[in-house]
């Protein structure tokens, strides 16, 4: 009986840790080099520093992702509802040409960066990326206020942004 209770408590602890909200980016994410639309290299940490003091919505997407494209009208509605927020779009596209074509084709408004190694690479792994689109919110202090939602109209996302106003 004691073994069963012990195993149950270990199991419950593991589940609660897995569902815990991550509040800071891992060093691997921060040091990951991305590309700007001007084809310059920049680390994710430098990107976050650039927008320090602002609330940020990070949209991880790709031009080849049908769910990302279907979600763009929701992103535009979110931008209209929260115009004072900075919107960072981090693309998982395979190359610069597909990425920039996607930005233009889908009229994606915001700040744009391209990861260097795709969804399964260093950045994707460090944020536990298992699906795109993926939305995260970073508050004015640089703390992750919301680590993961996959819909731009998710109530968690909207409530988080309302709480940061």
Q: Give the overall form.
A: globular
Radius of gyration: 17 Å
Give the SSE string.
Answer: HHEEHEHEHEHEEH
The CATH C-level name is Alpha Beta
* CATH architect. name: 3-Layer(aba) Sandwich
Whole-number tally of structural domains? 1
Specify the CATH homologous superfamily: Glutaredoxin
Q: How many distinct helices? A: 7
Helicity range of the residues? 40-55%
Number of strands: 7
Mean pLDDT: 89
Strand order of the main beta sheet, please?
A: 2-1-5-4-3-6-7
Main beta-sheet annotation:
7 strands, mixed
Distance between the termini: 51 Å
Sheet-strand content, in percent, reads: 15-25%
Unreliable residue runs? 6-19
CATH topology: Glutaredoxin
Show the helix and strand layout.
Layout lengths: L1 H17 L8 H4 L2 E4 L4 E3 H7 L5 E6 L4 H16 L4 E6 L4 H10 L5 E5 L6 H5 L7 E5 L5 E6 L5 H10 L1
Parallel strand pairs: 3-4, 4-5
Antiparallel strand pairs: 1-2, 1-5, 3-6, 6-7
Describe this structure in words.
- This protein is of the alpha/beta class and 165 residues long.
- The protein has a single domain, classed as Glutaredoxin.
- The chain has seven helices and seven strands; from the N terminus they run H-H-E-E-H-E-H-E-H-E-H-E-E-H.
- It has helices at 2-18, 27-30, 44-50, 66-81, 96-105, 122-126, 155-164; strands at 33-36, 41-43, 56-61, 86-91, 111-115, 134-138, 144-149.
- It has a seven-stranded mixed beta sheet with strand order 2-1-5-4-3-6-7.
- The chain is globular, with a radius of gyration of 17 Å.
- Residues 1-20 form the signal peptide.
- It is found in: Cell envelope.
- Residues 23-165 form the Thioredoxin domain.
- Keywords: Cytochrome c-type biogenesis, Disulfide bond, Redox-active center, Signal.
- It comes from Flavobacterium jumunjinense.
